[in-house]
Amino acid sequence: MRTHPTVIPDLDGPVVVEQNLWSGKPRLFVGGVEVPSTGRRSFSVRTREGSSVDVTVKSTLVRPFPTIQIGDRNFETGPALPVWLVILMLLPLALLVIGGALGGAIGALGVVVNTIIARSAWGVVAKSLTMFGVFAVALGLWFSLALAAMFL
Question: The pTM is what?
Answer without folding.
Answer: 0.81
